[in-house]
Fold this protein.
Amino acid sequence: MPDLISQALATDGLGWLVLTMTVAGIVRGFTGFGTGMIFAPIGFLFLEVTDVVLLLAITGFASTAALLPKAVRDGDIKEVSKLGIAAIITVPFGIWLISLFTPDAIRWLACFIAGGLVVALLLGWRYRGPITTPRLFGIGGAGGIFGGLTGLTGPAVILFYLANGSRAAVVRANTILFLATLDVALAANLFAKDLIRAEIVGLALVLSVPYFLTSLIGQRLFRPDYEQIYRLAAYGIIAASVVIGLPLWD
């Protein structure tokens, strides 16, 4: 264990990674989402694609430990279970897709997905159809594919929930529960495919400390009456991360 931590502390860009994860924890705490979209564009500057996916999955456990109890009380377990089952099925396909793309192509895709989500929501996209089981499976399946390929586990379900007018507390709880399910699926699949590097596990443990603490801070900051402010703040932070992480600046 000490060797893993010492290797993690020697990671190139560690300061940026810690800062990014700290901000992501606050956003995750008060909105229930945003970690992958904030961290992945920056993480790809210093780490391999599979390392970023693994790191997000492991650190996700820290945030889940902080946020899960309240999410279980507030969320719709039946609805989230349908999203989660579909995501679990499609995660292996997303991980397999990594081998078909160059790292830069995946970086562009991650930035496009995260940036596209922000633009769609700011433009007032609204889903007005019924929440049917096939649609839930489709949304969850898309989350599994994108999560396995880029580490961005949330955009599909976030776009659906934030755009369909659901109450802020329910949106936050369901998103936390779904992302927790997907974190377990990602970690299990990466382990099964022998894609886990010990030094990344050490780095994940290091980053989990500020992530856990700031997730608690973000949760304390959450007030349903200020839903619009939370969303706009999250959009701005995600957009900034996307711009900084664009391959254009290499």
Summary: Residues 17 and 53 are 14 Å apart (CA to CA).
